[in-house]
Amino acid sequence: MLLSSYPQAILHIDADAFFASVEQAIHPELKGKPIVTGAERGIVVAMSYEAKACGVVRGMMGTEAKKRCPGLLFVPSDYETYGLFSKRLFEIMRRFTPQVEEYSIDEAFADITGLRRLHHASYPQIAKIIKETIDAELGITVSVGLSLTKSLAKLASKYKKPSGLVCVPGRQVAAFTKENTIDKVWGFGHNSVALLKKNHIHTVYDFINKPEKFATGLFGKIGTELWQELSGNSLYKVDPSEKTTYMSISKVKTFSPPTNDPDYLYAQLLRNLERATAKMRRFKLTTKRIIIMLKSQQFQNKAFEISLSRSSTSVMEMIEPLRQAFDHLFSKHTIYRSTGIVLCDLKTDKNIQLNIFEDPVRMVKMQHIDSAIDKINNLFGRQAIHLASTIPANHRSQGNKGAPPKRQQNLLTGENKHRRLNMPVLEIRPLH
Description:
This protein has 432 residues and is of the alpha+beta class. 38% of the residues lie in helices and 18% in strands.
């Protein structure tokens, strides 16, 4: 295998322990300490590297986590601030190249091919500058991988976490793939890895050293694509376009303490539906299939599927079937810890077909109401206008597992619980 250094120069940037790192960035007293987020749920949502070193893992109950790490600090999740840091992360990347693909809240790909002259630097130097800029401006560290393809770049970013910078030019692909086991490849799940190991494939090099038809025979099209990508031939292009389609949209709410209050549970479920349908309308999608879920304190899920007579975008049209489904699922003898809604089989919102018994004028009026609510909520904050039936969800204590995030405690003038400026607030303490 002989490849030129960088026929394509693809970056993958992955924030290290993102949620926990953001907490440490805005609360400097937490730096270097084992912390986890998720205090409001009583389970570990994310953890710092100091907590990972103690054996704390995602999804662990708080009591078990504290047994493993007696000095562990639990903080409530502050998703609003995490989202703001995420936007800043991507904005910094776009200063260097417009070709940025947001892959998740804490990672992205970027194509910097052909930008050496613009930045007066080599590709590894550009990667280093981007990393250092993010580290300095956000106060968090990121791991960066640079290589010829998205698959190799993602493999490289994982190679020296945390705060790693790994550059794999074409001439080093063979050596680099020999050092990485097949389970680290983006795209191979547990079953795929087990199948590869049965065929005596243990490293990435073992895989790409086989004929291409071997990969195709095992996994079909995806096998061919991964074989090409890991061999250094770019097939997966960096896509800077905003995501505008979803196969499904889900909204889940976990609360503490658990409850069997039917009014509160229904209000939370209806709020899940409000938020899910608002997102669906934002992307101009529609659905006729809805799944509602209740999870018990013992982590047992009960679900019910609703099929509408026609596709809809309006929460108003879904209230009656939601109420019926809730009454079917709810048991007064069960204590529940979360509610959830999944909108399935989403399609483009156009040419919705009415049946002969429906009133088209009423449907148009409901669409106008939804549009007005969406505009007001976008302007004045989520839930500025909401269904009255969701009010019980506001009035119940969330227990004592953790105080609200500091951003929700320290409101600026004119802000309220649901309407805040899109900016994090740093906590400044006097020196003693």
